[in-house]
Design goal:
2 copies of one chain form a homodimer.
Chain A lengths: L5 E2 L9 E3 L23 H4 L5 H8 L4 E3 L2 H7 L7 E3 L1 H7 L4 E6 L10 H13 L4 E6 L3 H13 L2 E7 H6 L1 H9 L3 E5 L5 H9 L7 H12 L5 E4 L5 H7 L1 H12 L6 E5 L4 H17 L4 E7 L4 H4 L1 E6 L8 E6 L21 H8 L4 E5 L1 H15 L5 H19 L5 E6 L7 H8 L10 H11 L6
Helix pairs in contact in A: 2-11, 3-5, 4-16, 5-6, 5-11, 6-8, 9-10, 11-13, 12-13, 16-17
Chain lengths: 455, 455
Amino acid sequence: MEKIRKIILSENEMPRQWYNIQADMPNKPLPPLNPATHKPVGPEDLAAVFPMELIKQEVSTERYIDIPDEVLDLYRIFRPSPLFRAFNLEKALGTKSKIYYKYEGGNYSGSHKANTAIAQAYYNKAEGVRRITTETGAGQWGSAMSFACHHFGLELVVFMVRVSFDQKPGRKLLMNTYNAKVIPSPSTMTAAGRSVLEQDPDSPGSLGIAISEAMEVAIQDPYTKYSLGSVLNHVILHQTIIGQEALIQMEKAGDYPDVVIGCFGGGSNFSGIAFPFLREKLLNGKDIRLVTVEPASCPKLTKGKFMYDFGDTAGMTPLLPMYSLGHNFIPDKIHAGGLRYHGAGVLVSQLLKDGFIEAKAKLQRECFEAGVLFARTEGILPAPESNYAIAGALDEARKADLEGVSKTILFNLSGHGHFDISAYEKYFENNLPDHELSSEEIDKSIANANLPNLM
Amino acid sequence: MEKIRKIILSENEMPRQWYNIQADMPNKPLPPLNPATHKPVGPEDLAAVFPMELIKQEVSTERYIDIPDEVLDLYRIFRPSPLFRAFNLEKALGTKSKIYYKYEGGNYSGSHKANTAIAQAYYNKAEGVRRITTETGAGQWGSAMSFACHHFGLELVVFMVRVSFDQKPGRKLLMNTYNAKVIPSPSTMTAAGRSVLEQDPDSPGSLGIAISEAMEVAIQDPYTKYSLGSVLNHVILHQTIIGQEALIQMEKAGDYPDVVIGCFGGGSNFSGIAFPFLREKLLNGKDIRLVTVEPASCPKLTKGKFMYDFGDTAGMTPLLPMYSLGHNFIPDKIHAGGLRYHGAGVLVSQLLKDGFIEAKAKLQRECFEAGVLFARTEGILPAPESNYAIAGALDEARKADLEGVSKTILFNLSGHGHFDISAYEKYFENNLPDHELSSEEIDKSIANANLPNLM
């Protein structure tokens, strides 16, 4: 019998609802707090920043939320995305396990970020917004928003973390091609940026700083809103289409994963694939493990503290209950720019605390090694971020082989690495400095955040 | 009713045979000639360069040739490729016509080149070859061969045209990641390269020169063969899977093209999509136009001479009956590196001469303008080469609108432009020098080729 390498779905098979895990969490997430009053923030507190429909999604406890027709229509230029069986990779490993991956890099943005970009641009447009500001790390999120905003007739200004701006010049040019304006962050355009530059004129930037800058610009104009590419509940919600599709595809493959793996920055690609499977565990008792893989140099889930912290560096967001390294933590300049974030989304944080998911951390060199093996066997050049998920999948396969068992492993290949190719050059040059963050460094960073204990 | 944006096929629907147009050409192509004797070359003359199975395909007149199982199996990591209806582009144009495109950039190589790379690597491996040499322009072909050779356990050495080597550094790194060795051409490694460098130490190189270098290295070692990414009949043959799929997909869409369009370098992506439709015209009387679009700075089909010429600059190949600008013609440094070739494949040349296909030429600026419109509407960033096909499709739509009719237009989107993004920067900077080659320049170049008249 011939091997079927990929399970594809037609556009008519595409799910028409996102899945909201807030409906099914045994312990609901703690509320975001106003940093001045320490009281829970209400929808009105967020109205200067986000359109009302997204604020409603942020707090909704409905299990399913309909995807608007306009969003479904644009999803169709690239969704449903394929689910691959990694036969070549399995053969190279000599593993008894089966490895599947959902590939989210086949769209215009080169990553899963398009799933929420299109939804966010749509809801903003529907409420009369004219301009959006946002941050981007490696540039995948910025690219995703650039096309989405152009499609819906919105202007876009992107604050791009400077280290990624310098490492990945192609990403800026791609955003320009989609008609967006891109500014390296920290910039002199905002008070938040100027403050960072005063302390360190050579600051490599961070997602936290770029968020502060984008928010600062947004709140100055009623027709400008801010948009975030990960972390928040509504972003996670939009990404669940990944897992919703994967469930159908695994069924078509006649298989079911023992473990689902995603790399971890703020939580959106991991949650997107994992939460629908977690629903099956919570509601239908399906046995499954859900594993995040984060950089050892930015280990909020494995070594951070569960606490109330800001989502951005300048402290403009509400205080969020999350695992964090402290909001002014500046991660190493690893090439997985999308994973250089100090905190973890509220939903993932609560679920990790409650033992529903697992977290592990890895050094980037091992992840690039996994990525090169993947490229040479499966063909697709992975994003540096996605390499963490691949490395996690290899761990699971090797462990199963040592134990003499066969597992079914599913990971999210969140994006391609075409604009990150110089990172691979550094790998071959053996020039990927990185380190495992120590407890002392973490304690210092958290103390430096100077936050009240609100737990 | 909801719009279906893409027609996809399952792996089981993938065609299992390539289509060989030599079976159905009213006038068969003239034979290649030995440059010394001016007698037709036989299979044995090519045996030092190509494996026997590819030589057989080069001269076969069988209508269909089975795709080997090993090739089908690897095709499945990315084939069948999707056929899109360009609804967003149509809307932006305000056209009454329907525009479809077959997208060949969704695979590891980012272009259609993977279709023949996998086949060529397979046949070489099957005949005991250990190492392959090849040329590449913009790097798509070299990337395609890199992964294919690694998969089948072959070494690969790629001579990359220097201007593209400098313009597109990411492509070299991608080939390295797939484990290939890449050398800028002209190089000092071969007599052919040294000869060019003696005359012009700053030579930008050309596909013709790179072919000479790769062939020179190959013929020195019995376990090394040479591989070509376009032009030759067996390459065209492998690419017909594009059109074979497109025929099924257009039928599923309930439509049939009035015109099929491809950009033109050596002929492989155009022929790949067009020849199966030409078969339907020749055998079943289906009305259709087949249009090539080439650079005005390298206009072999629109302004070149139909003559016997060499496929490479140093004159190592047999003499081929083709439209050519002269084998030592050095094209402008346009960013569509894959279109910088002096000649046209033998099959396309004969069919153009016989009036079965049409040719037009365009300046690169207009093609980039079309590419940016395409990116901003359909999402996919096209390769600079593919922009010529898009510009050709826009011409057809606009012409139909002027005439008050609706046409069904199909073009081949041969690849993505992720590694060509700096070319888009030049477009936005209004820095894309280019010129329409004059009759005087062409006469001079052809005289400079110094060839006997053998027609």
